[in-house]
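Rotation project, supervised by the postdoc (A.L.). Task for the rotation student: set up a whole-complex structure prediction and record inputs and outputs verbatim in this book. Inputs entered:
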Amino acid sequence: MTMNNQGRPTSVENSGNSTRSGYPSYTGSRGLSQVEGLIYEIGDTSRTGVDFPEVEDFENRLGGMERTEEIGLAGLTEPEAMRHYTRLSRKNYAIDLGLYPLGSCTMKHNPRLNEKVVRLPGLSDIHPLQPISTTQGALDLIDTLAHWLKTLTGMPAVAMSPKAGAHGELCGLMTIRAALEAKGNPRSIVLAPESAHGTNPATATLCGYTVKPIPATKDGRVDLEAMKEALGPDVAAIMVTNPNTCGLFEREIIEIADAVHEIGGYFYCDGANFNAIVGKVRPGDLGVDAMHINLHKTFSTPHGGGGPGAGPVVLSEALAPYAPIPYVVAGDEEFELIEHDKSGKSFGRMTAFHGQMGMFVRALAYMMSHGADGLAKVAEDSVLNANYILASLKDVMSASFNGPCMHEALFDDRFLKDTGVSTLDFSKAMIDEGYHPMTMYFPLVVHGAMLIEPTESESKLSVDQFIGMMRHLVAAAKAGEKERFSGAPYNAPLRRLDETAAARNPVLRWTKPDQ
Amino acid sequence: MTIYYSEDHEWIEVEGKTGTVGITDYAQNALGDIVFVELPEVGEDFAKGDEVAVVESVKAASEIYCPVGGEITAVNEELEDNAALVNTSPDGDGWFFKIEIADESELESLMDAAGYKEFIAGLE
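Outputs recorded:
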């Protein structure tokens, strides 16, 4: 027999989970955690990834306007450029790396089937300026997606072009304003509850309205009586998120809708949290006039640095005529793209083309692979996961509302009282445990908020690990391990950043150090 | 010279017809590190309760409401370069603006130092 006698040891004393050695490395890297400079620090003008032929004699026709100084762009070889971005990407957190509990963000898994479908050449290699006779399949897809959105929400119309949730809000409020202007008076006030997403008052202000906040009741919902008192002939609309940002269903939503309709105003529903009710509740049945749907939340398209958003807005019969152009219409023979509004009612155009096609494909792939029954299950599982977290943590953390909750669980910082640990410190310690922190200090209606949304993507094993990690950190905080929190993160590529200095003295461009 | 306090955590120091307005220590502490202050223009008129300035901290942007109505006679230009003064000296160098008080009876709805102390104790 042949013996392998070369002496390579195959077991070591400290195998398995490594603890860090006390030896500082020459490079500053720690194994697979490699240090990486800014591209301007590692690149220079002597290298390049492309090989251009020398410029031969040419006639300069710039008339003295040519640049005489060096541009100073960083030059890198192709492998250097590859490694730079790959190394940076490895310092980042992503939904493909772990649970992403950001409340109200619905950071769910982006199914690989979506990605497979969107890469089909017939969908990925088309251009919005092609003759529409050659893009009938794409228009059919937009029309089918619109049909699903209208069916799931019970609304008669949808504007597909808005490109994000906040853009959808803007579309909704511009539609409402156009409808009120058509009646002769755009009005001046928009009501928004205190727990509203910050984009709600921002949108209303951008549309020229004054925002009047509506207080919350003790159980975290819109105060119906206070809302009724704020209503008047100047109120254009109310903007309500349902389920709201406390993770609670607004039980009096129909009364809210009726009250605002009575004074001739409109009901804008922020659909950011639609994931909790998709397939279960149709907003059209609740009296909603306009609602954006974040395809990048409820319908699983990538976001948070992974891709652009998409925020189609469903509209009631009363608002439909004022929707933006363009829109797709199924004609007798073929699909048409309506680019000009002949009625003169549409408020105009929000985007150059018809919207975020790549997201439409992914969202429709998600819907059709789940089916209507599967989407209802999505809502059930997302609510179940959130309640499991609420029930598993409320004996050691302080739940702001007793529950049951919808798709997200809200805690506040009462459980950290007298520990010297803040919500921010606690969140930073989660980074050391390999998790992205939850949404913190929002909503504003509770002190030191921690808003946890696991989504339906997580298995029981994954949620149990998260709960175990949270209970471990709570125990450490209560045991007085203050430094573990106040100095965190210890294990991240960079330690705690000085947010105040960054805001007071932002350094927005790199300057070449003096040589 | 008397100092009054509002429920929105502004203080106003009154001397004759002129009031100097800032935010309280409690407010600066709750807001966190302040990075930007947007001040009104000298000569602008505000009614009691109007949004008169905006403070931006690392956490959030918050409106400052006018504790009494009147015309702005001066603003603290130091804050443009050094918003941190609001944190380090909320009731001194970190003042926001001076206002010519239109109706002194509006001061009556504000609190005195003892009243404000009691008010914030109730918020804890």
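Student's summary: The interface with chain A takes residues 33, 35-36, 56, 58-60, 83-84 of chain B (CB under 8 Å).
Supervisor addendum: The two ends of chain B are 29 Å apart (CA to CA).
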